[in-house]
Fold:
Amino acid sequence: MADFEVTILGSSSATPTFTRNPSAQVLQILGRYFLIDCGEGTQIQMRKNRVKFQKINQIFISHLHGDHYLGLMGFIQTLHLLGRTTPLEIFSPSPLKEILEIQLKHSETTLRYPLIFNEIDTTSHLKIWEDNCVEVYSIPLKHRLPCSGFLFKEKEKLLSVRKDMLAEYKIPIASIQAIKEGSDFTTSFGQVIPNYKLVHPKTPLKSYAYCSDTIFDPTIVPLISEVNLLYHESTFINEHSTRAKETFHSTAEQAATIAKMANVKKLLLGHFSARYGNLDIFIQEALPHFQNVETVEEGKTYLI
Amino acid sequence: MADFEVTILGSSSATPTFTRNPSAQVLQILGRYFLIDCGEGTQIQMRKNRVKFQKINQIFISHLHGDHYLGLMGFIQTLHLLGRTTPLEIFSPSPLKEILEIQLKHSETTLRYPLIFNEIDTTSHLKIWEDNCVEVYSIPLKHRLPCSGFLFKEKEKLLSVRKDMLAEYKIPIASIQAIKEGSDFTTSFGQVIPNYKLVHPKTPLKSYAYCSDTIFDPTIVPLISEVNLLYHESTFINEHSTRAKETFHSTAEQAATIAKMANVKKLLLGHFSARYGNLDIFIQEALPHFQNVETVEEGKTYLI
Structure:
């Protein structure tokens, strides 16, 4: 298992097809599991892809079109039936709370675990969750309903001290924490050893941005600048660009343009309209604008 | 296509498994298509089994545990996206209306077709729908939530007149309707030809009863007496009969006992707890009580 990877559970827009399911992804960062959107059938897709249900502690729902959340109630109930006691946090536009509560009420279900609901302000770019290693930000998107993308970033880590240098300069244990935090070290002879000589080079911090659903909107570019992997919806191809605009969706070309403007390292296209069978044309239309691009495959895990 | 057949889309209780989906069935009677329960993933199962979505005009929901209705909102939205204009009737315990309306409101969806909601009185055995060929009755079931089974019956048909007799007795067109309705015919010579000589023998009227979810409850026996096919839940086997009682479910033996008491022609067992892999034991425990029994297979169509 890599330190940072995303598994695609669904890649269809609006309605499932013979081969594609509605939006859902599981992101794993340093052993933390995040569920991003939860279309109908997500728990079935999770079983097929051997995702461990109880490892998920945070769920991020972008907006309240059914293809992004209709699998959530079933997943919540299954976690309950499986005996979960660990709290589950949900981040979503606010009406989802009412939708979940009314269903729990009418099924007379009292969950065995705390369900913690966190309302997202879909108009702001804010830090919405963090622990000691990972932070998550909202990305305001422009769609027909209030909608938020999500930016997942590794946090700055302590430096890793070189063992050979510990021996060479006889560094006492009491000094190690300061070196990890970036300090130089002064030996008992008064020699100052610069920090960079004592530690391994920093590994770059990784990041993943999820942008679905949205019309072509360059105002998100500074928020997703330089991310390692960008998932951007591309519901349509150029032939249907008018339909994309009307329905507040993007084309493959527009997603590639955003990827180029933000100078991201890699682009994944997804959220395909059910009208398209073969997806090659999405790549053909994206490639002139951005080279490192793929159409997502359900069941595939992408390393970041 | 037979005149009366049921296709099983889901056979799991509570939560989907690797191989089983939550409750849903499509019943076809003389070209009418009825959806019975609609667990998560029903529309995906319908696609796999080539069920034509728009042919369904009535949906019957037994109760409001998620495994019996969580696929309904997605199906309703897909019908809308596919351009449906024909009314869709839903029969269910009343809170479902509120659950659907709140989700339509928050997704800002105005359906292109009329959604007609009919509340079921889960305490009474009542005719809840009919047309010229079929009638549907509620079956009060005893479960943890208000719950109704459904009885589908062919209506008495007009008799089918023998063409050879029309010629033999020179029967005028004006007299045919009366013969179809059971009258004798008097020839121009005053000879009375009894009706039974003029018509084909009656074909017996067929019926199907769906009983899920319910504790063992012999009070339903007179309501499902002599049906051609009974689907009865058997969530558990005898080893877990205490659990069955606690959760208001039935065992295979109890389902078979109901089938025997009601003198039905055939019994289908379904709604299996996720704890069971191989289902042979359900048959073993049912057989001593009722011979013509099967465990349902998803994707299989049973002729009635």
Q: What stands out?
A: DSSP finds nine helices and 16 strands in chain A. The first helix of chain A runs from residue 42 to 48.
